[in-house]
Amino acid sequence: MKRKPRPTIKDVAQSAGVSVATVSAVINKSRFVSDELVGKVLKVIDKLNYYPNRIARGLKTQKSLIVAYIIPDINNPIFARLARGVQDTMEKASYDVSLYNTDFSDKKLFRHLTTIVESRVSGIILSAWHNPKVKEAISLIQNLNIPLVIVHSPRNLDNVDSILIDDKKGAYEATCNLIEWGHKRIVSLGVKNSTTSRLREEGYRKALVENELAQEKGLIVQTDNFSPGDAFLTTQELYKSNLSFTAIFAHSDLLAIGAMEATLERALKIPEDISIIAFDDTYASLALPKLTTMHVPNYEIGKKAAEILLRRLSSASVTEPPTHEEIVPTFIERKSTRDLLR
Amino acid sequence: MKRKPRPTIKDVAQSAGVSVATVSAVINKSRFVSDELVGKVLKVIDKLNYYPNRIARGLKTQKSLIVAYIIPDINNPIFARLARGVQDTMEKASYDVSLYNTDFSDKKLFRHLTTIVESRVSGIILSAWHNPKVKEAISLIQNLNIPLVIVHSPRNLDNVDSILIDDKKGAYEATCNLIEWGHKRIVSLGVKNSTTSRLREEGYRKALVENELAQEKGLIVQTDNFSPGDAFLTTQELYKSNLSFTAIFAHSDLLAIGAMEATLERALKIPEDISIIAFDDTYASLALPKLTTMHVPNYEIGKKAAEILLRRLSSASVTEPPTHEEIVPTFIERKSTRDLLR
DNA sequence: CTGAAAGCGCTTACAG
DNA sequence: CTGAAAGCGCTTACAG
């Protein structure tokens, strides 16, 4: 069974008794057309139910009005929010955005990259810093001269636009807040082999040092993954060790939830006995008690990334040097932390 | 500043000393080419760093290998999981999927539809049953003969492929489980003006009727939105009313979380004093105690939707009558419910 | 102010 | 087994 072919610009021109150039002009408002012809053309477009073919336009203009956004997994609320920020912003500039999930796999990353390049996207936004071969991916894109913005990037990339989170500073502030409230023995609950977690631990250490508090080895613990289950186990171990502490700085909301579970299991109260502060603000407001956390404005970060790309796309700024933004998370006090001095 | 133009199939042909037809044939394996020429062409493709232009191919073949998936909001984990199911499945068939967020707005829905139609997508998957004008959208798509699959659809749509959740049955089973465990006074915590919630309430009522339990008006309550904050307020009111009950059937995980908060505030224990069962299984496993819930397999639903679309796309099945699947959620017992009889 | 025609980069009958 | 050429549906100089 064959589908009825859609009408083309030629059909419209013929039916309206004008040239295709004129039809094109009224669609794109690309040159003056007399009111009379505009009226005629519009009427025919409506009658034939004509939709211009973006593929054909793309071939001629050599651009697709599509931007690719590469992320690990849209199921992670961090990336879902980033994606909305990107999409909403690009949409206003009449770009579509295609999402590509890598699941942290280099194979998927490069498979997607092939598709993306073949699709002649206008630009790429990349949140794939976990991938070992991300640098290779970046140079592939740059060799092709495709505008690129890195989000939550690998560090030390100065020849490409990037916007990232100041993890160290965020962690520093989280820890300082706890210290101001009289906490002296604070757990750092992080994740092995994670750049993000390493930076958050650095911030934590810096806060301790500046406040002349001892860095007790046993209080710095690490799980295998950013998962509540792992965090639960690690925190359970910690309690068994009988080290004393009054607060836990968890390097993510999910880790904090695992720590809460282990704490509750121990019949300890949050925040009366133990204060817990989290990071990200994805699930934090859903936990009970609601988690105090460092809020990362992912929607806004996505929005900014899109704006940076948009600037590159307006060829004017193609020669400007790369920009690097660092976003500092903000402290949000909820119910899981207690001021010991009050 | 101009970007260097990418090499075209012509450049490859010239450089390899063959015709463009031959180059096309080796790229698409669309006809036999001697090993010798294949080798030559492949080498040149690699040397020139040539990527075929999908836009040009799309123009010629009259299809884009893109599928549009329209959802309310990718930030909602329900849609994020559906989207992954759709994307992973379409990807295997070498389709890309573009995501469009409507935010429940008809205006956005139709704006996206215009883009989608202009982009000559191969097919559309639609999860927009909240939109008042969804039927109008459906007929727009059908008039254009674009293959369409509805997910989590409006009911009573028999001329289009659809896959939906059997909300009534899921709710029925949730409630029956509670009843089997000796609960006789069970709250139904739903949402006003929601088709989904209405069906879930019907299932709840059916379970009561079949078990000859009274339907007490005061125990059937409704919030304004699927939000924990609203559910908290509504449950708080309920406790103030002094009606007695031993269990709450919340129509979603988020509602259950709000109910938990109000319950804990009342110094009641979950599940010792009050059992809570939720629906969806999005956030349920993150709550403490972990919520018993009706699991909706959204990833698999997205996968199936994509498979249905793929069948339509292989023109063979274009004349087959529409299919309608209903997925029954499954009961997952966790820690928020108690068997009164044990 | 508008039209005729070239051309974007492919694929695909059609020849040979 | 391979090549020359038409054509997909647009946009855009170029004429007039």
What does this structure look like?
With 342 residues, chain A is α/β, with parallel strands linked by helices. Chain A has three domains: 9-52, lambda repressor-like DNA-binding domains (434 Repressor (Amino-terminal Domain)); 62-166 and 298-328, Rossmann fold; 167-296, Rossmann fold, CATH 3.40.50. Helix content of chain A is 44%, strand content 16%. Chain A is built from twelve helices and twelve strands. Chain A has helices at residues 9-16, 20-28, 35-48, 54-61, 77-92, 106-118, 134-143, 167-180, 195-210, 228-240, 253-265, 298-313, and strands spanning 66-71, 96-101, 123-126, 148-151, 161-165, 186-191, 220-223, 247-250, 275-280, 292-295, 324-327, 330-332. The first copy, chain A, has a six-stranded parallel β-sheet, sandwiched between helices. Chain A has a six-stranded mixed β-sheet with strand order 7-6-8-9-10-12, sandwiched between helices. In chain A, strand 3, helix 7 (134-143) and strand 4 form a beta-alpha-beta unit. In chain A, helix 5 packs parallel to helix 12 (298-313) and helix 8 (167-180) packs parallel to helix 9 (195-210). Chain A binds a DNA duplex (16 and 16 nucleotides) through residues 8-10, 18-22, 24-25, 28, 30-34, 37, 52-62.
Biggest sheet of chain A: strands side by side, in what order?
2-1-3-4-5-11
Overall pLDDT metric of chain A: 94
| Tally of helical runs of chain A | 12
Form type of chain A: elongated
The helix/strand order of chain A is HHHHEHEHEHEEHEHEHEHEEHEE
CATH class value of the largest domain in chain A: Alpha Beta
| Alpha-beta classification of chain A | alpha/beta
CATH fold field value of the largest domain in chain A: Rossmann fold
How many strands in all of chain A? Answer: 12
Q: From the structure provided, what is the oligomeric state, counting identical versus distinct chains?
A: homodimer
Major protein interface: A-B, 51 and 51 residues
The percent range for strand residues of chain A is: 15-25%
Q: Report the biggest beta sheet of chain A as strand number plus sense, adding barrel if it closes.
A: 6 strands, parallel
| Spatial extent as radius of gyration of chain A | 26 Å
Let me know the CATH homologous superfamily of the largest domain in chain A: Response regulator
Low-confidence stretches of chain A: none
Secondary-structure arrangement, i.e. CATH architecture of the largest domain in chain A: 3-Layer(aba) Sandwich
Number of domains of chain A: 3
Helix content of chain A: 40-55%
